[in-house]
Every structure is written in C-alpha cells, then in structure tokens.
Amino acid sequence: MSGIRKIPASCHLHLHVFQYEGLHHMSESVFVGLRDKVGTSKQVAMRRETKDIIEMVVRQVTPYDGVITMLSGSRREGFRLEGSDVDVMLWPNNHRVIMDMSQSEYYNKANTTLILSDSSESPPGFTLLQLLTSTTRRYVQSACVRMNDKVYISSSAFRLFLAPPGLNVTEHGPCSNCIIKEGHEGDIALCFVCDFWPLSASSWINRCHSWPDSEVVDDIVRNGCHFVAIGHPLGPHANEEWRISFSQAEYKCVYAMNHCQFLTYGLLKLFLKEVLNKQLEETNKLLCSYHMKTTIFWAIQQNTLPHCCPQNLLAGFWACFKLLLKWVYKGICPNFFIPQNNMFLTKVHGSAQNRLFLQLYELYKKGLACLLQSPSIRSYIIDVLYNPRVFVCTDENFMKSEVDCDVELGYEIVDRITCYSGLNIDLHSCVKYLYGIEKWVDLRLTHYQVFMLQRLAAYFLRNTAVVLHNMYTNTRANKRMYIADKMSRHMLKLAAKFGNVSDMLFIAIYYYKTLRYREASSLIKITKAKLAQPYLMYNGCEDRERYIEAVGGQSLSTKMRQAVAKDIILDTRIFYISELIPEQQSALQNVVHVLYIPVFVMLHFLEFLCYRHIDTTLSQAALDELQVLVHHDQGLYVPDLLRDISWEILGICQQITGNHQAALYSYQQSLTQYPAHQIHTATQMRIQDL
User: Fold this and answer.
1) Residue 173 φ/ψ region, left for φ over 0, alpha for ψ in the -120 to 50 degree band, beta for the rest
2) How many CA atoms lie within 13 A of 84 on its CB side?
3) Domains, the chain, ranges and CATH?
4) ω before 165 within 30° of 0 (cis)?
5) How does pLDDT run across 489-512, given as a tens digit for each residue?
6) Phi/psi of residue 568, nearest 5 degrees
7) Residue 416 near residue 452, CB atoms below 8 Å
8) Which of 55, 371, 377, 611 stands the most exposed, by the fewest C-beta atoms within 10 Å?
9) In sequence order, what are the residues at sequence separation of 6 or more whose Cβ sits closer than 8 angstroms to the Cβ of residue 43?
C-alpha cells in the first residue's frame, strides 16, 4: 500500500536474532515512543501525587458511617492510555472484615459491622464472608443467605445492588460497568475492607528480598486488603464466595517500579491490546491486562529482567513475553500474592490453551519483529532500521514541554476534584473538609501535592461560602446575615487567590445572587479582559510562545491564577443562581452531581443577567455574543460534551427577554445534544412553560 514504508529485507534477519547489534539503539527509540505514549516520569509522578493527596484528605474527613472511594486500576497506577476504563472501589467505612475472632477486639462493636473471612472450603484467593454483627446497610442485608445456621453475604446477590435489572449497567466480573461520559466507561466495585494481611498471602512477604523494598512491603501489609463480590467458578460456593483483592497493594508495587520498568509494563499493555487481542477471535478474551501486570511483577521480583534502562527495555519486554509463553504452555499463571491461585484455571485450559499457545509461539518465532504489529510502536522500530546511526535522545528534559505538562495538570485537577463531588455539602461537613486540608499544610509535600491542596481548598471554600449564604438568606437576624455575607465574600476572594482565571466568576455569581449588580459587572469586565489575553490556556488551546513568555518558569499557582481558564463546575446540590435551579434539580434526580459550564458561556450569561439591571443595551450585546458563541463555535470554546447546558443557558436568556421562538429552538437543540448533564426534564418543563 502506498504511504507505508516496507522494512528493508536486510533487517528482517536481524530482528529475529535477539543479540541484534542495534538492539540497544532500537530499545532507546522504543523508550522514547513509550514515553510519548505513556508519559515521562514527571508526568506519571504528577498523576499519582495529585490523586494520592486528594484521596488522603477526603478519607481523613469521611465520617465513620460514610463510604470510602479509591481509584484503582491503570489510572491509579499512572497510565492515561486511550480507551482505558476508570476503575473505582467503594466500601462502607464502618464495615470491617477480620481473619479470625481474636481480631474483633480492635473494633467498637456498637458502631462497626464485623464480617469474618472463612476460607476453609474455598479455592486459594477466595473466601466466604460471615456476617457477625448487625448492619444497617440495606444492600448488605438483602445479600444475606443462611448456610449451616450461619449468616453469610452472597457475592452474587450483593452485585445486584450496583447492577439492577433495567438500568444501562452491566456486570463486569465483580464490578458494574457503566458509561460515565461519552466515550469513557467506568468499572465500579462495591466491596469490603480488611485491616489485616491475609494468611494465605504471607509467603509474598517472605519473597520480597530485593523488590519491593521493606518500607513498601511494610506499608502494603499494614493497609490490609479488600474483598470483591465474585466467586470462583469452580468453587463449592461460587455464588456466595468473595475474591481477595490486592488492588491497593498492586498500585503501590507499580509505584515501586523505576520508570523504565513502568514503561515496560506499558509496552506489555499495548502489546496485549494491539497485537495479542487482534489475533484469532477465539483467543482474544483469554488474556487481560491483569495477566500482563502479574507477568512483570514476577519478572522484577525474580530478577529475570535485566538492569532496566532505556538501552535494554526491549530485552526486558522479551523476558516478560517468554515468561508469559511459559505460563500458557503449562496452563499456570500464579497470582503474585497468592501463588496457589492459578489465574488460568477457568479459561486457559484444553483446546483454548492450545490455540493460545500456538498463537503466542508464532509471535515468539518472529522475535522482536512481532512488535511491528503494534501501531503505537512500529514507527519507532522502523525509524532505527532505516537509519541505524540516528541519534535518539532519552533525556527526559527534552521530551515534554513545560506547556504540555501544564495542560495535563489542568485536566488532572478537574478530574480529581469532580471525583469527590458526591461528598456531603452541609456547613458542618464543608468546615470539616477545610480543617482536614489545614492539617496537611505543614507536612512535607511535593509541589504537585501542595498545588492540589490549594485547588481543593478553593473548591471547598467556594462551596462553603454559598452554603453559608443560603443558610441565612431567609433569616430575619440582620446581624447574622451581615456576618455570614462578610465571611462568604472573604472565602470567595481567598478561593480566587488559590484558583484560576475562571474562579473570579464565582465572586461575580455571588454578587449577582446578593443583588450587587454593579460590583458583579465590574468583576466580569476584569475577568473578560483576562480571558481575552493571547497567552490564555483553555481547553487545550493556547499560544505556546506567548504562554511561556507570560508565565514560563513561574510557580504552578501563579500560572493558574494568571493564564489558565477552566470550565465552571457547579455542584447540583448547591443553588448558585436561581435561573439554573431547574437544571440542577433535573441533573440531581438523575444522580449527576455537577454541571460543567463552559467559562465563556458562563461569562456572557452573567453579563446578560447583571446588565439587565444596569443597561439593557449592554445586556442585549451580551446575549448577542452568547448566541454567536453557541451557534457557531466548533468545539473550541464550547466543548461538544457541554453543548446541552450551553444551548439551555442560551434558551433561558432568550426566554427572559421574551423571544419565545428563539428560546424554543435553543431548548430543542439542547435536547438533541449528548445528555452529559441529564437536564432534559428541566428542558421539557421550560418548553411547556413557553
């Protein structure tokens, strides 16, 4: 085919030979490619550190009768590969699994539901969970079954809570798989936590001579494990059994890898997705990403990986591939923590095992040439084959620009904060969150963690300010109203110092809410001028040279405050603007906790609302700007996923002015967009009102 370079015939033989004289050079090239695809060590550290700090803060302030949330899987490990699911584990904080009755003395039985792990009849890695004390959780009560005069929690019945019939949710192992937003799937596992390390995994501790180091091992053991709702298909109680999950231990082991090992792990994941799963249809579901993770864990711990560096990355990949091939040949894939748990037992056996082995062996015979089947890796191999003397720079400082890192950091922050939008929003909880953040201020933190704390503080300060004002809106105590108003304004101004350019609009929203129209319009003017700067970074659009000229080399908080804009995030449980209450209520009814409003849409919306009370000509001008933006933007300032709320806001403004025909068109357009915010109930209500 034209446009695709063929590999020189002279190079085919060399690719079959493992001791290829240019192997080190080729490894460097693949290393560079993987770092483009997977991320630099700096990017991976940023992803992990921002996630870790927010999770630690939130966990610290979660009430004992609340629910703990933990991001797991590849995103927690630091990957951002296209098409990857978002894996989340949830568990009731006041439920604890114990391994034997003696451990019950560590808990207050008056407020803790105790569950006993009974693995006496279960295959390795699985167990029954016996309910020892009462529970108020309805989904736990509904999953209880009686066996031998004891009450057990059935895993199959438990899974129905997160995947009830009739909803667009499907079972995926112990998880419920759902669409969290267009093009992105999420796996949610409701589980139980155990503060103790399982006896069946004690051999793992003894194996850890060189990797991971003793500090990591101690931390892993100290934090115990989890139990997820899936039984062993061949176990005597498949519908009642639970699987021991080491998700927390696994991401800590991945953290313990050096960056070259992490990229090798990334190469294995790409190889699975782009090569192994593109072979025969009958074998493309036999191996999964967890098998790749298990392979590299064993390879590192058994020192079968050579000293991992850019020059021998491919040698490390090949060592892992040979180990995987050996396991498929034997039909045994030992779990990293409980080796007696053979993860091939139910799928990779018999004729399926034979077909999979033959497929892998064909790839093995090709040598490293098998990687040419990977679209992500192919070009980096071919480039070196065509030009063996080409210089490959593996220095990370020349890999990713400052702008690229700042863009990704901005996305990570939005992702992290909105993950916790389901937290309680009463005043007591909001103040508790702020105190929780304060406790971390004096600790030794990385600059990413400090920055994340600032953003988290800004988020909670904004919410606290509005909640406080809403509490005293209808009170007759003028003094209390005055104090609440003063405190709310102070918190919003403080939040703006920690936030980005867009966050100034929250002060304008508050001024509008409290009838300070001139103060609001003055602040909108300032914000509008900042949003018009040529160096502004928004939605992946930026003039890189001007951005660097303006804020290059400055602190992350300075960059955010002066040159970065983000969409406005409104918690649907907190009423900010009366004009948007129906939309918030509609979203909340459909369990959508936040509205994302494009910053330029919100800017013109506020302009229109404020100027209606000051200057109708300027109000109409703001509406005209909003109309042009929503009608003609090509995804630059109104992202496709946010077009439902954008058309809705335009319709609201048009309805306020009495232009019902234009409003009807806008509402109808809102209904045709992807329902990211689930506001259709409000839209239909507004259409009826017209």
Assistant:
1) left
2) 20
3) 9-38+261-398 (1.10.1410), 80-254 (3.30.460), 401-566 (no CATH), 571-690 (1.25.40)
4) no
5) 999 999 999 889 999 999 999 999
6) -80, 130
7) yes
8) 55
9) 400, 405, 408
In DSSP terms, 342 is beta-bridged to 334
CA distance 513 to 467: 13
Q: Which amino acid is at 212?
A: P
Residue ranges with strand state E in 295-400: none
What the block records as the tokens of 4 is 């695709």
**In this structure, are residues 242 and 226 in contact, taking their beta carbons and an 8 Å threshold?**
no
Q: What size, in residues, is the chain?
A: 690
Distances (CA, A) of 506 to 213, 453, 631, 681: 47, 19, 25, 26
DSSP labels for 134-157?
Answer: ----HHHHTTEEEETTEEEE-HHH
Q: Round to whole Å and give the CA distance between 58 and 359.
A: 47
**Dihedral angle over CA of 506, 508, 512, 517, nearest 10:** 180
What are the residue ranges in the chain where pLDDT is below 70?
1-21, 163-173, 175-185, 306, 397-400, 414-422, 474-477, 541
- Its pTM stands at 0.88
Strand-pairing partners, residue 88, are 71, 188
pLDDT of residue 184: 61
Integer Cα distance of 106 and 194 in angstroms: 12
In the three-class reduction of DSSP (H, G, I as helix; E, B as strand; rest coil), residue 535 is classed as: coil
Residue identified by tokens 């167990």 is 127
